[in-house]
Description:
The structure holds 2 protein chains of 2 kinds.
Chain A: H1 14-20, E1 39-50, E2 53-64, E3 68-72, H2 79-86, E4 94-99, H3 108-112, E5 115-118, H4 130-139, H5 146-155, H6 169-182, E6 187-191, H7 199-214, E7 218-223, H8 226-232, E8 235-240, E9 243-249, H9 250-256, E10 259-265, E11 278-283, E12 287-292, H10 297-303, E13 308-314, H11 318-326
Helix pairs in contact in A: 5-6
Chain B: H1 2-14, H2 16-40, H3 44-55, H4 58-64, H5 73-106, H6 109-114, H7 120-148, H8 153-164, H9 166-180, H10 184-207, H11 219-225, H12 238-255, H13 281-310, H14 321-330, H15 338-369, H16 372-377, H17 383-415, H18 422-430, H19 433-449, H20 454-475, H21 479-482, H22 500-521
Amino acid sequence: MREKPGCRGCALPAILLSCTTRSSHPPGPAPAGEPHGSLAIQTEGLSKRYGRTLALDALDLGVRQGEVYGYLGPNGSGKTTTIRLLLGLHRPSAGRGTLFGIDAWRDPVAAHRRVAYVAGEPFLWPALTSEETFAFLASLREGIDVAYRDVLVERFQLDTAKRVRALSKGNRQKVQLIAAFASRADLLILDEPTGGLDPLMEVAFRETVTEAKARGQTVFLSSHILSEVEALCDRVGILRAGRLVDQGTLAALRHLSAQTVEVTFDGPAPRLDGLPGVHVASAGANALRLEVSGSIGPVIASLASHPVLALSSREPTLEEIFLHHYDSSDGRVGD
Amino acid sequence: MSATSAIARRTLASSRARNVSFALLFGLVAYANVAGYRSAYPTLKDRLGFAHAFGGNASLRLFYGKPFDLLSVGGYSAWRIGGITSIFAAVWGVLAAVRALRAEEDAGRQELVLAGLVSRRDAYLAALAAGGAGMALLWLALFLGLLAGRLPAGESAYLALATVAVVPVFLGVGALASQLAPTRRLALELSSAALTLALLVRVVADTASGLDWLRWVTPLGWVEELRPFTGAQPAVLLVPFACAALLLAAAGAIAVRRDVGRGVLATQETAAPRLRLLSSPTALAFRGERASFAGWLLGTGSFALILGVISTSVSSAGISNNFQRQLQKVAAVSITTPSGYIGLSFLFFILAVSLFCCAQLAAARHEEAEERLETLLALPVSRRGWLAGRLGLALAGAVVISLAAGVLSWAGAAAQNAGISLASMLEAGANCLPVAALFLALAALGFALLPRASGGLAYGLVAVTFVWQLLGGLLGAPKWLLDLSPFQHVGLVPAQPFRAGDAIAMLAIAAAAGLAALWLFDRRDLIGE
C-alpha cells in the first residue's frame, strides 16, 4: 500500500476550520498565512468564456489537503467548467488554477498523477468489460490498490464480466467510481458522481468517501444533492452563474444565516420588531415565527417578560442556505 | 402524419452538409466532363482518335466502366459521368441510410422518438422519405450540370436518373445493415463491404474479356446497362427498383419486429476478460480498430489481386503517337502494357489508403466527440502522446495496406507471367504513402483546428483533389492549378519512375502539418459532439 502524504487540514478541529475562512462576499482564496503547498486546489481569478457566455467569473478557490469540499450549484452554474479548467481539459480565458501547486494546463501529466476524476456522465469504452476497463485504466497510472478495488467491486455489487455497452448508467458510474477510489490518488475530483446510483449505492458511496477522508485523501465533490454534501463535506462553496457566492464550513454558513425561532405564548403575542437582527417572519394570534441573525440572546432576554408556553429554535438546513443564495429578491447576493 | 414529416425534416436537416457537398460535387463533375470533352475534342476526327485510344482501354474502365459510344458528347458523358458518380451515389446511399437509421439508435435518440406518438413503421418510412428527398437533390444537381453543358434535356434527365438509380439500392443495403448490426460502426462496415464487392464485380465485368454478363450481377453494372445516350434501355430501371424494394421491405420488416437499440446480430453482453492490448491508449485504439484494419486489408488486397490477374488481358492494339499525346491529358502513362495498367490502377490504391487515413482520424475525433477522450486525458496521459499514437497507428496501417496491395497485385500478375518484379510492386505500394501521409497530416491539422468539421473536411479534400486530378487535365486547366492536387505529383510506378523529389516534398509538408497539429491540439479545449 502506498504511503499517503501527511495532511494538515484534516488534523484541524472543525471549530478551528470554521474560524479560518469566512468572508461573506466573494470569499478569499486561501486562508492567509497558510503555506501554498498545503492546498490541493487553488484558483486565482479563474475565468472561462465560451464565445459570448461567461461560464466562470474570476473564481478564487482554495481546497485544503485532506478535506472534503462540497461544490454546490444548480445546473449550468459552472461546476463542470471549473473541473475542466482544473484538469487542464479546457484552457482558462483568464486567471489560473493549480492542483498541488501544478498548473494542469501547463503540465497536465504531472498534475493528473495525483488526481483521479469521475465525470458526471460515464464515458467509457463500450466494447470493454468492466474488468478490462479496470485493467486499461490501471495501465495508465501507478499505484492502483487492487485489493481495495476488489472490496469496492463487492461493495458496489458490480458484475465485472459485463461489457460497458450492456451496463445501465448507474452501473457505468460505478465503474468510474471504483477505478477512481482504487487509484488512491491524493485528490479525487467527483463531478455529480451519484447521478445514476440507487439509495443503497448512495450509502456505499458515502462510506467510500468517508474511508478516503480517513486515509487523508482530499475530495472535491461537485453536487447539487444537498443531503449528500451536508453529510460528507467539511467545507462548502456555493456557485451561482459562474461566481462563487459563498464559501465556508457548514457551521460558519449556518452561523451567518438566520436561524428560525418559533414561540407560542399564553395569551396574545407581543411585538418584538425593535430588536436588532430579528425579523418577524409570520405572526399569529398567540404565536410568532422569527428569523434571527447572529445571537438569539437578545430575543431570549426580551421574551423573559412574556408568558411563553413553548419555544423552539433550529439552525437553517443547507437547503435553506442554498435557496437563500438563489433568491434573487435577497439583496445580500447579487451580480 | 405530421410526426412522420417532422422526423423526415429533422433527418434532412441533420444531413444538410453531406447532401449539399455531394450535390455540388455531382453538378461540377457533370458540367466539367461535358464542357471538357466538347472543348478538347471538337471535331469528329478528334473524337475518332480519342475513341480509338480509349475505347479498348481496360484501365480507364476501372474508374469509368465500359464505354458504349465515344463519338458523341452524350455518349462520352454517359461513360465518364455515370461510371464514377454512380460509385459516389452508392456511397451517399449507404451513409444516408445508416445515419438515419442505425446512428440515431446508437445514440439513443431513436428511443425518445419511438416513445412518442410515432409507430416504428412511420419512423422507418420517414427516414426513407428523407433518403428519397436527398436522392432527388442529387438527381437535380446532375441534371442541371448536364444542362449547363448544353446537352438535351430529356436525355440529360435520363442519364441523371440512371446514375442515381443506384441510390435506392444502396439505401436498401444501408437500411438492411442497420437492422443487422447493433452499432453504427458495424453497419457502415457491412455496407462498405457490400459496396466494395459491387465495385469489384463491375471492374471485373468491364475489364476482363468474356465476362460482360457479370455486369448484371452488380448494381453498379445496371447503371451501365441503362445505356443513357447510347440506345437507352429504360426497362432496365426495373432491376434496381425491384432490388431496392426487396431490400427496403426486408429491412422494414425487421425494423418493426426487433428490439429498439439492438441488432439482429447478437452482441455478447458478458465476456471473459482479454487483457491483451490494454497497455496504452494507442494499444487500446488498435484493439478497437482491428476489425476495421482487417476489412480495409481484405478489400484492397482482393482488389489488388484481381488487378494483377487481369493486367495481362489489356488490349495491346497499336496506339499512334498522336493519340498517346491525348492520352497524356488524362494520365501521363502508356496504359496498354500490364505495368502501365497496374501503374494507373494504383491511383485507386492511393485514394483508398488516403481514405483509410481519413477514417482513422475520424475515429480519433469520434473518441473526442463521445467524450471518452476526456476520461482518458484526465489521467496521466499526454495529449501529444495520444494524438501521436493515433497518427502512428494510422501510418502503420497505411504502410501495411499499401505494401499488401503491392505484393498481391504482383502475385496476381506473376500468376499470368506479366513479367513485373516484386521489387517494383513493393515500390508501387510504398509510392502510395507520401500522398496518404500528406492527407493524414492535413486531416490531423483539421482535427486540431476545427474538430467538429474535421471529418467532412478531410474526406472532402481527398475527394475533391482526386476528382480534380481526373478532370483538370481534360479541362485544360493551367499547370499550377493542376499541381494543387497531390495525386498530380505521383509517379505511376511501375510504369513511370518513382518521383523522389515530389515524395520528399509531400513528406516534408506532412511532417510540418503533423507537428503543427500536435502543437495546436495541445492548446485547444476538448470539444464534445
